[in-house]
Design goal:
10 strands
Amino acid sequence: MTKSIFKTVMLSILLITFLSCGDDDNSPSRSADKIEFIIDNGTPISYSTNIITSDTPLAPTSGYSCIFKINSENTVGDTFELSFGFSTMPCPFQLVTPSSITLIGAQISILNIQGVDINYSSPGNAITLDYQLFGQNSGDNIKIIISGHYYDSPGQIHTISGEIDINRS
């Protein structure tokens, strides 16, 4: 009888231990499903609701074959959009990583963040997109680090940092 109780207790301990183990995958290729920005070292602003990525084929007359977009919104409905990847290659859009690009002046208009006052035409804008991971298949991870500065409508300069860590739709 005591052997039976001992075996039951041991089995219960093993079962509880096994079931309480979580996913410990903290690898750099694991997505956090978030899009967050910090303006002037303030509180993070999240645009992590309704995240959608899309490859859109373009008409041959455009001179390009594909454009890639990331769309999402925050909890109050302000939208985020990053449109890039005007490519002459067919969809899906592909990008070699790691790589980076710095957007100067009006080039930052490919990055649209509602709820943040950005003067998209200011020549002093400079925002760097550092592509860490850019999976080309559905479910693959996309990780982009954003840093730099921009000017608002009244002409004040602001720093911006952020991270896009999502899975490709």
